[in-house]
Amino acid sequence: MRRPTLLMLCLGSAVALSACEKNKESEVDRAIQSVNAIEDNDLSDIMLSVADANEAVNYFKRTSAEHPDRIDLQRNLAKSLVRAKHNTEAAAAWSKVVKHPEATNADQVDYADALIRAGNWDRAEQVLDAVPPTYETFDRYKLEAMIADKNEEWKKSDSFYETAVGLTTKPSSVLNNWGYSKLSRGDYREAERLFGEAIQYDPRLFTAKNNLILARGAQRNYQMPIFEMTQVERSQLLHTMALAAIKQGDVSIGRSLLQDAIDTNPQHFEAAVNSLEALGPAE
What is the pTM of this model? Predict the structure, then answer.
């Protein structure tokens, strides 16, 4: 009578052992999948940040083709195309992303951004109009402001810029855009103020420095502002100010500023030299 009992015990042990092994295998599989997912995310982050832009495009084209249902890979392909400045292709890639069942409002905003980069402003406006008004982000309002600028809807533009500034801790770029909007309207004093704020947030933003010089030049103020700049930057800004002075008809001041730009630059400043030669000899 003991043999059947022993046999049952052995069979039960074998089944339990087999179940344990299967459980262990499942745990190992899950662990491997988890590690692979982490590695995929890490590699994606690397590709989107420090890798060569075109290499990133090729990587995400390959991986998204291998996994056509994964929206994260489609997003990363679209982002890498924007980073590589393949604007038309990027807009097409984002168009595919927003059609995915898991697409979000953020995807729609990124799609509008890509459309603007590709020069399709009307379609970008349509895409943003379809985003619920309750979705309030810095990126959304920055784009809304840019579109309002394009349409010369200045009250809307100012309102959107003001909202965007309040939604970020790094407003330098949007302050620069707002300043350029004011510059294009002829509100030079307000433009100068906004460029100055942009520089305070990011002292390395040369575009804002150059725009501030343009705003000053438009007011016939040819004094160099006081902010952090390299010797090369100072030379380039003097060149910008010289051209602004010449445009205002202050040719002798412009000539002097061009000479300062040439003397300040540690290397041969061909653009300033050419500008000075184009003026001809001083009268």
Answer: 0.80
